[in-house]
Amino acid sequence: MRRSFLSLTLLLLSSLTFASNECVQLFLKAKEQFRMSSYAQSLQTLDKLDEESQQPGNEAYRAQLAPSLAFYRGANLAALGRMDEARPYLEAYLTYQPNASLDPSAYPPKVIAAFDQVRKEARVKKETPEESGTLAMSYRAFKGTVSNHQEEAGEDWATGPVGYLLTSEQKRDFGRLSDPVSRSEFITTFWKAHDPRPETPENEARDEFDRRVAFADSRFSQDETRGSLTDRGMGFILLGPPTWIGRKPLSTGDDRYDPAGMSFYTDSQVASALKGIGSSAASNLKYDHMTGPNNKLPNSDGNFREVWHYRRELLPAGISFQQVDAEFITRQGYGRSVLQREARVLTTLDTARDNMRSGSYTRASSH
Questions:
Q1: What gap in Å lies between CA 315 and CA 362, rounded to an integer?
Q2: Helix (H, G, I), strand (E, B) or coil at 32
Q3: Which of 122, 230, 243, 305 could crosslink 311 through cysteines, CB 3.0-4.6 Å?
Q4: pTM for this model (two decimals)
Q5: Which domain holds residue 209?
Q6: Contact residues for 137 (Cβ-Cβ < 8 A; gap 6+)
Q7: From CA 77, how far away is CA 196, in angstroms rounded?
Q8: What stretch of H or E contains 118?
Q9: Is residue 257, in this structure, part of any structural domain at all?
């Protein structure tokens, strides 16, 4: 289904729902300049928007702005004929909205051509392994962090990303605190205990943790769930970027944890159809259709296996495996990017968690 210009505009505006008024005004200005074919001026306004979103107090808006900034940067550059520069921005936008399409009547031909080409290439890449330089390089270039560790000492702090590091006793102790001052003191003491070099003013472990959280929030969000609280976010925070990533569509029976795999129909639906066998030709036809080879879900964008491959040199210190593969399954009726909790993966995550609790993010290659 083709998206109209209006629906795409509303989609992009939705990312600014909670942004500062200045951010909203700059975004609307950049969008209007693009509509008026003032592409160079629109790019300049987007630069100002980028700077404004990095001001103290606007850190949380960075993740919300990311899809909009990526799309309009790419669209402006494509309209100016600068395809090589537009490509990475359009690719980034499609990581947020993989099923997006543009109305040819609402965008310049150069933008439509560039977007369609990048979308076509992205679909091809899904059938082949993705060299992980993509995610690792994105993380190295990532600038978003939690400024000055300004964390609210709210009651839900322990249920946030830091919960990956807290012990059950620490969660219980924090839950017993009744006021912001005592909670703030607890947080300060907690991070001080994780400082690998207490003689310096920086806390390298906390800085790295905050940076991974901010990156996960910007890349792995799912509907109303923060990226850092998804399964992929947890994996990234505890293990860092993988060696490489592979992704492929699921077919019927492809999910080894569910023989039904990608079937359109549940077991109960098939059983109901089976009860009608013998009573009518229609029942027989219905049962054959529900159990035949053409009942798998055709939407590979929404039903796939994503595998994060960690080679020996990127595994946490203390892990002896030569490679660990973390699988994330997306399937209708099952969930989105659900980590398959295999013994090797859980052991690796637990080891990484123990290392981080001691203030160490060291990987096996360092030992």
A1: 9
A2: helix
A3: 243
A4: 0.55
A5: 147-247+301-366
A6: none
A7: 44
A8: helix 109-125
A9: no
